[in-house]
Amino acid sequence: MSNPIPKAKIFACTQSTVLGEKIAKAFGTELGNVITSTYSDGEFQPSYEESIRGTRIFIIGSTNPGPKNLMEMLLMIDAAKRASARHITAVLPYFGWARQDRKDKPRVPIAAKLVAKMLEAAGATRIITMDLHADQIQGFFEKPVDHLFGSTIFLPYLRSLNLPNLTIASPDMGGSKRAYAYSKALNSDVVICYKQRAKANIISHMELIGNVEGQNVVLVDDMVDTAGTLTRAADLMMERGALSVRAICTHPILSGKAYENINNSKLEELIVTDSIPVKPLSDKVKVLSCAELFAGVMEQVHHNKSISVKFVM
Question: pLDDT, tens digit, for every residue of 149-176?
């Protein structure tokens, strides 16, 4: 007679508590109890207030900058390892620091690789994340990585809009693979924006490859930061005769003048997930929850079942 699989426990880092509660509910349980003590100089210490010995635990937390979010995840993993958890799965709805995935000029770090090694050194035995900035970041890990696709969430919504003359667009050359995947699933055309940057977050020139006249365009990207690229692309497409422009971005970083750019642009709608908490500062921003997706994958992982169905467009 085989031993029953012990019950999994789910915990959340501070920033991801709301998402963690949604995931736990969809999983059929409640968030575990963690108390974080903070010293006057800003140092903090998370503490599990229940036994996790011999169990599989899931720690939910996006690691977007500043450094506190990543540090909290590392401390939570380390505490779980020292408390004798059997399996420690780091659930990173947004894997931060991922834009530094290669050396694009001399004497710079590869932060994505460093973060991967830190998570493993802390004691993570598995990683679950969604829409990495670059697919090859999976290769920075020696532990199993389940890389989920936001398209699982976005495609049903797009189909519900029943947009005629639909065209999928990528805001840059690097996102063309993602755009083609969406276009294949939706049987639509594809256009690409070619941009040149003066420096980070500053675009010096943008050009459109393809025709958008008379089309309802949906821009697809993995993240939206200042929204400079998206809004400039949307305005360019409207100038070229598009009927409407929407944007789908999995991770809503929305820093700097992002909301101002969105509100002042010709974007009709920006559709994001709740991988990062979103401030309700624009009526154009629509949030779709990724909780059901993560809960489903976590349940399959816990019961050692295939998750390949979650990768189907």
Answer: 999 999 999 999 999 999 999 988 888 8
Q: How far apart are CA 70 and CA 310, in angstroms?
A: 26
**233 vs 127, 219, 246, CA distance in Å?**
33, 8, 10
Q: How many Å apart are CA 150 and CA 220, to the nearest integer? A: 10
- Distances, alpha carbon 265 to alpha carbons 176, 190, 228, in Å: 23, 22, 10
172 token code pair: 């840059």
Within 13 Å, how many C-alpha atoms sit on residue 172's CB side?
17
What sign does the CA torsion over 136, 112, 89, 272 have? negative
The two tokens of residue 195 are 């941009």
Residues annotated as catalytic are 195
**Shortest CA distance to 59 belongs to which of 80, 41, 39?**
80
| Residue where the block lists tokens 């063309």 | 176
Cα distances (angstroms) measured from residue 91 to each of 74, 147, 251: 12, 10, 15
What the chain holds in terms of domains, given with CATH numbers, is: 9-148+291-311 (3.40.50.2020), 151-288 (3.40.50.2020)
Only one residue has tokens 């642009």, namely 265
DSSP code of 31? B
User: For the whole model, what pTM was predicted?
Assistant: 0.93
Residue ranges in the chain whose pLDDT is less than 50: 1
